[in-house]
Amino acid sequence: GLKVAAGMGRLGTETAFEVLARAKALEAQGRSIINLGIGQPDFSTPGHIVEAAVKALADGHHGYTPAQGIPELRRAISIDLHRRHGVTVDPVQVLVVPGGKVTMFFAISMFGEPGAEIIYPNPGFPIYESVIRYTGATAVPLPLREATGFALTAEDVLARITPRTRLLILNSPANPTGGVVPRAEIDKLVAGLAHHPHVAVMSDEIYGEMLYDGAEHVSLLTYPELADRLILLDGFSKTYAMTGWRLGYGVWPKALLPLAERLAVNSHSCVNAAAQWAGIAALEGPRAPARQMVDAFAERRGRIVAALNRLPGVSCVTPGGAFYVFPNITGTGMDSRTLQARLLDEAGIATIAGTSFGAEGEGYLRLSYAASLEAIDEAMGRFGEFLARNT
Ligand code: PLP
């Protein structure tokens, strides 16, 4: 038979896509399924962004673009980063890519190989661990705990650094927990990293504009002492409800950008031109649609956290960001995978087992509240009835 590369056997996946497929299959059988599984806004992309893409196509933007992205978009990203974080980023450091995930793949493949160690949050976005293992590097989990609101502590991170550590992956606000790392902890971490100049940092800030109750997003970009080793991951998928457009970017240290660009040329060449023009409209156009989305998420967050805390055997901390809740379900007597499977099959609610985000996620479930209030109410009602039948 065919012999594929060994790394293929180490690639993981994102359970969200499997749950989505199973939910769609059940729906095709006529079942009513409420999808709190997949992590995408339930809003359409704002109209002015769509119009910019249509105009770009009509205007003839049909060809390849520079691999780094069109200069107009890289400049708009630089201006947006200044607006949000108060820092000046040279547009030459920006690499536009087809989705935030691509910056992740590039950064991890740039540093990962057998013998190298990469520290990543657990529970965390599952693709971190998957790609680390794919490269043959050792995946070093950074456990995140409910007691600290699922935010890392600097001490925990620094204790895991060895001479073999190449890359540290950070994610705040976080998927799957909604945890937000406080400024004081980031200050401590950055101070500690001064003793480990061999460690690069990839900061995944894709939920950086989804914050509630005055929670503060502290971008790693605001620490000039990290400038020569920080890779910032950001993008348009969440903030502008553009998951299907595949548009994201990385900000790279000047010395690493040519390597990242080479990875781009060797893989996707460039992002489709119309999506890039749409990205400019997103950054330069009215901010109200993005703000209204966050306001809607804030209301839904309150609704779902309150409902979860009324369920027997379930408790849920209030997350500061993103659009996920990560309730503790140990009191139900079921493990994460069992509860995920039974909620889908017996109650018609798609959720994701905490263990899909790493071993440290056992005892938890991830629910996305990027769904209407009616859908959330109905799902919580079904969840309650399911528990009443089964506990
Ligand atoms: N980073 C985190 C933490 C995410 O949750 C996601 C999407 O779910 C991504 C990156 C990838 O975003 P994109 O769809 O832009 O590739």
TrEMBL record:
<dbReference type="GO" id="GO:0006520">
    <property type="term" value="P:amino acid metabolic process"/>
</dbReference>
<keyword id="KW-0808">Transferase</keyword>
<dbReference type="InterPro" id="IPR004839">
    <property type="entry name" value="Aminotransferase_I/II_large"/>
</dbReference>
<dbReference type="GO" id="GO:0004069">
    <property type="term" value="F:L-aspartate:2-oxoglutarate aminotransferase activity"/>
</dbReference>
<keyword id="KW-0663">Pyridoxal phosphate</keyword>
<dbReference type="InterPro" id="IPR050596">
    <property type="entry name" value="AspAT/PAT-like"/>
</dbReference>
<feature type="domain" description="Aminotransferase class I/classII large">
    <location>
        <begin position="32"/>
        <end position="382"/>
    </location>
</feature>
<protein>
    <recommendedName>
        <fullName>Aminotransferase</fullName>
        <ecNumber>2.6.1.-</ecNumber>
    </recommendedName>
</protein>
<dbReference type="Pfam" id="PF00155">
    <property type="entry name" value="Aminotran_1_2"/>
</dbReference>
<dbReference type="InterPro" id="IPR015424">
    <property type="entry name" value="PyrdxlP-dep_Trfase"/>
</dbReference>
<comment type="similarity">
    <text>Belongs to the class-I pyridoxal-phosphate-dependent aminotransferase family.</text>
</comment>
<dbReference type="InterPro" id="IPR004838">
    <property type="entry name" value="NHTrfase_class1_PyrdxlP-BS"/>
</dbReference>
<keyword id="KW-0032">Aminotransferase</keyword>
<dbReference type="InterPro" id="IPR015422">
    <property type="entry name" value="PyrdxlP-dep_Trfase_small"/>
</dbReference>
<dbReference type="GO" id="GO:0030170">
    <property type="term" value="F:pyridoxal phosphate binding"/>
</dbReference>
<dbReference type="InterPro" id="IPR015421">
    <property type="entry name" value="PyrdxlP-dep_Trfase_major"/>
</dbReference>
